[in-house]
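Hi P.,

Sorry for the delay on this. The queue was packed all week, but I finally got your sequence through. Input first:
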Amino acid sequence: MRERLFDLGLWLLLCVPVLLRSDPNDGGSRLQVALGVVVLGGCVAVSRRWPLAALAATVAASLPASLELFTPSYSLALVAFGYLAGRRQEHTRAALWLFGAVAVAGLALTWLTRTSLGQWFTLLLALALAVVAPWLIGRYVRQYDRLVRSGWELADRMEREQAAVADRERLRERSRIAGDMHDSLGHDLALIAIRAGALEVSPELGPEQQRAAGELRRAAADATARLRDIIGVLREDDSAAPTGPPGETVEELTARARASGLAVTLAPTPVPTLPGMSGLALHRVVQEGLTNVARHAPGAAVSVTVDQDPTSVRVRVVSGPGTGGTGTGGTGSGGGTGLVGLDERVRLAGGTLGHRATDDGGFALTAVLPRNPPAPLPAAPTSARELDRARREVRKGLARAIWIPLALLAALGLLMAGVALWTQARSYLEPADYDRIRVGQSLAEIDEEAEDWPDRPLDGPPRGAPAEPPGMDECRYYRATMLAAIPVYRLCFADGHLAGKAEVP
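Then the structure:
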C-alpha cells in the first residue's frame, strides 16, 4: 500500500510541469497534455520493475520537444527517473548503453535537422547533469542502503551465532575428553591386560588365582572395547586432536610399559624435549605405538628410536610379530580411531605421520615433528569480511559518483573545443588567397582563383566592427588567422560580383 501511495504521489508531482508548460494558453495543446500525463503514468507504473524503460520513455518524450533534451515539461521527470534507475537497477551496463544511445540519437537528429552542433553539446550537458548525475546519486544511495542492511543482517546473525557458541564449546570439550580417555585410559587398560595375562600363566599361582587373573584380563579387554564404543559416540568427525598435557615424559612412559611386561627399548636417552604441540605429539606417538603393540601383538618386542637434527625430530616405534596376536600392530580388531586422531595431532604440530607393516610381520609407526611448530593463524570472521566488502562497494560507488560526471564534463569540453577548431578551420581564408582575388570578380571566378576557398563564412561580423558599405547586397566575413577572433576579412558583393574587400581590425 505504501508503494502505491508513493507512486501515485510521484505521478501527480511529475504531471505538474506538463500541465503548466503544455497548456494551450502557453503554446501547447490539450493533446500534448494528455499524452504527457499518460506517458508519465506508464513510466511510474513500470519504474519498479523496469526502471531503465521508464527513463528511456521520458527521454523519448523530451527529444521531439527539444533537441537540447532539457525541456520545461519533462525536466523534473528526467531527474526523477534517472535517480530511480540508479536506485533500483542492479547492474550498470544497460544504463551506460542507454546513455550512449541517447548521445548518438541526439547527434543523428542534429544532422538530420541541419541544426547547429551547439544544440548537441547542450544535449550532452543536459544528459550529464539531468540524467547521469541523478543516476550516480541513486547508485550511491543503493550501495549505502546495502551497507546498512548488511550491517543489520550481520548483527542479527552474530546474535544468533552467539547463542550457539556455548553449545559448540560443550561439544568440543566432549571431544577433547573423549580423546583423553582414548589416549590415557586405553593405554592403561592395555597395560592392565598385559599384567593380568602374565599372572594367568604364572606357575607361582594356583588355579583359582590364575582363573581370577584370566577374568581380569578379559574384563580389561571388554572395558577397552566399551571405551572405544563410547569414544565413537563422543567424538565429532571434524574435531581437532586433543591437546591436553600427557603428564609424563617419554622415558617414564616406556619405563611404565616395561614394568607392565612389554619388551621395550628406548634409544637414545635422554629423549630431546620439544616445545608446545611438537612435544605433545611426540609423547602421543610413542603412547599410541605401545598401546597398539599391547593390544594387537602381545609378547612382541618394541624398539623406540628418536633421532634429531637442527630443524626436526624423527620418532620410530617398531614392533616385531606377536606371540599371541595377529602380528599387525595397527590393523587388528580396533576401530582405527587411534591412528586417525594421532595423524590429526601430528598434522596440527606441523609434522607428518606414516605407518606400515614390516617384512617380518611386525608394524612400524613413524613421525617427523618440527622443533618449532608453526603458530595457527586465526581466520578472519565471515561477518568482518562481508562488512568490509560492503564498505568497499560503497566507497567505489561514491568515487564513481564523483569522477564520472567530471570525466563526462572534461570529455564534453574537449569535444566542444575540437568542434570549435574545426568550425574555425572551415571559415579561415588564407592571406595569399585574399591578396589574389580582385574587385569585380564573380563568385565563380573567385572560387577558381583561390586555391583553398573556405567552406562557409562566419555567422556575422565581429563585435565592434565598422558599418558595412552602403549599396551592398551581401557582406561575408572570414577569419584572417586560425585561432584569433580578429582581425577578419570582409568581402562585400553587389549583383553577384565582388564590390569591395577590406581587413576589419
